[in-house]
Every structure is written in structure tokens, then in C-alpha cells.
Amino acid sequence: MRYLQGNQQDDHAMHHHYPDFDDHALITSRYDAHSGLSALIAIHNDTRGPAIGGCRIIDYQSFDSAMTDVLRLSRGMTYKTAIAGIPYGGGKAVIIADPARDKTTGLLEAFGDFVESLGGRYITSFDSGTTLADIETIATRTSFAAGTLAEAGNASGTTAQGIYHCMRAAADIVHGSPDLSGMTVAVQGVGNVGARLADRLARDGVLLIVADANEARAREVADSLGAKWVAADRIDRTTAHIFAPCALGAVLSTKTIPDLSAQIVVGGANNQLATPDCDELLRRHGILYCPDYLANAGGIIDLHYQRSAWNAEAVETHVASLADTFVDVAERACAQGRGTAAVADEIAQERFARPRTSA
Length: 359
Ligand code: NAD
Known about the structure:
Number of helices: 13
Shape: globular
Number of strands: 11
CATH topology of the largest domain: Rossmann fold
Bound molecules: nicotinamide-adenine-dinucleotide
Oligomer: single chain
């Protein structure tokens, strides 16, 4: 008994060693020599329902970097599911492997067994390094895998739609009209989400400037939409009404914010603020920022309907409501003289702190 208690304390101390540990509900690992699986699953909070979040396959340089990633990302999912108003908590999985070299059917099946062993406490889906086909393989071993419903299509389209609604709401707040026609939007990263967003905006008569680390990709999207393109390292300083980060995190920093020309930032990338104080810096520069996990919650809403009862109209209505939440966040932030990210965090925290029955 003393040995067990000692171990529990050590475990607790071990988790505290990671700055991103935030009273997570469950952190569990699996190593399986036969398949080569080395994976971590973290459940941050499951007050509102089972934890949901994608599975990354990345060749992490160390166990610590994999742990840091899974802790940080699972926490983010708790905020996202709460702000999106869906009955799930936040979770995430990471597989420590090179997706190009190590991703075998056996590895994915072993991961499916790992997910299944948690009995539904965690529901997995795609992320970096995992594809729709991979989720289908994982789903042969567990019923707790989401995102493969054929009629739903690619959830990135729903993510882009949520960003679009939030952008219109931002334009309404700043310019007095949600009409985006004639406005200039700078899109950073035209992958799954950014290209779909650019396409939607082009149909509204938006003047688009796009950039991508893959320059050929930027040119291709620009040509197809009659848009301009600029080098990836210039997009955040390009003159535009709206900046839409749709590539990486940490793009809003003490270095980049003073040079932003846009008065509005709404995009799909996760973790856009380099540090929490950037929220206040954006406010002081008079820039209206839509918190990233609110702007990009369309995809997780899509997965929720894929798992319950698919209804394209209900998805669209739910995703459009993200804009109402954003207006609420912006109004509270303005009235209280606070940043929008701090206010969104507070709203999310109020929701996931409540017992499940009253959520
Ligand atoms: P993706 O990999 O399809 O696209 C990202 C694009 O950004 C790529 O074309 C890449 O070349 C480009 N890029 C990378 N670094 C860049 C840089 N420095 N400057 C400009 N472009 C750069 O990814 P995605 O699925 O479109 O996701 C984009 C972001 O949105 C990610 O942060 C992701 O975590 C987040 N997100 C995606 C979804 C979804 O539904 N796909 C949902 C929520 C959040």
C-alpha cells in the first residue's frame, strides 16, 4: 500500500513537471513492441461528456515534447467543445512515429485497441499525420473514432464555414455591416481550411491576398480565384482589412502585432497567440481578434453531428451560431476593457466547470 501511494505521488509529481499539465482528468500511455505503437492519450476535462480530439502521428524528438503536445492540445479541445456548445470534453492522442515511415495497418489497429480500452472516455479523429483512411483503419478496432461518415464530406469545409460566419460578425462590429464584398482579406496558408475559406470569400466579392509556405500552392489557389499572392513571410504585414491565419500557431506575437495592418483577425489556425499577453496587446492596438478555438470550432461541430444524427442543415445552423457567441464575447470584452481571448476562456470555463446534467 505504501508502495502504491508512493508511486501515485511520483506520478503526480511527474505530471507537474510539465508546465502544460492543468489538472488533466487522465493521462495514459501504451507501448506495444509487436506493432511498434508508442502512444499517449490525454483527457483534459470530461465534465460535459466524453473527451474528443484528433490523433497526431509525429516523429517527436523526445517523450517530453510528445507529452507537452498532448497536454496542451487536449486542454485546447476542452475550451473548443465548451465554446461550441457540444456535449463533449477535451482529449487528444499522439503517436510517436514518423507517419511516412512507420504508419502501418498494425500500428493503427493497435492504436484502435488502445482507444477501445478506454471504453468510450476518449473519441479519436484526424490531425497532423492521420488521414481519413487511417481513421477508417482505426475504426475497425474501436467504435470511438469520428469523421468517416461519407455523406458529411471533409470537415475542413465546415471549419471554413465557421470562420466565414465569424468574419462577417467581425465586419459588422467594426464596419457596421457583415457584407464582406470589396474588403481585402489576407489568408495565411491555403491548405484544407485556408483554400476552402478563400473560395467562400471569393464568391462574396472579397479581394483576396493569399500566401503559403508552398509557393506553388499559393500561386495555384490565387490563379483559380483571381486573387493576388505574396511571399509567406510578408502576408501578416500585407495591407488588408482582415487577416486570416490558417497555417501555424503563434503568429500573433509582440513582434508581429504592431506591424499588422488589419483591424480584424479571424482564422482557422490553432493557438494563434504566441503568449497570453498578446490578447491584451491586440486590444490596445484596436484589433478585433476572434479567439482561434471559437473561429475554428466548425470541424468539431461537424464531428458531433456525424456521431449523433447527421443533418446538414442542423450543422449549418449550429456553425452559424459561432458568430453569435463571438458577438457576445466581443461585447463583453469591450464593456469590460479586456481581450476577447480572456473573455472566451472565461465563458468556456463556466461551461465545463458545471456538472454534466446542467450543461
Ligand atoms: P493543412 O496542412 O492542410 O494546411 C496548412 C497550409 O499552411 C499548408 O498549405 C502549408 O503549406 C501552409 N503553411 C505552413 N507554414 C506556413 C507559413 N509559415 N506561412 C504560410 N503558409 C504556411 O492544414 P489545415 O487542415 O488547413 O489546418 C490549418 C490550421 O487550422 C492548423 O493550425 C490546424 O490545426 C487548424 N485547424 C484545422 C481544422 C480542420 O478542419 N482542418 C480544424 C480546426 C483547426
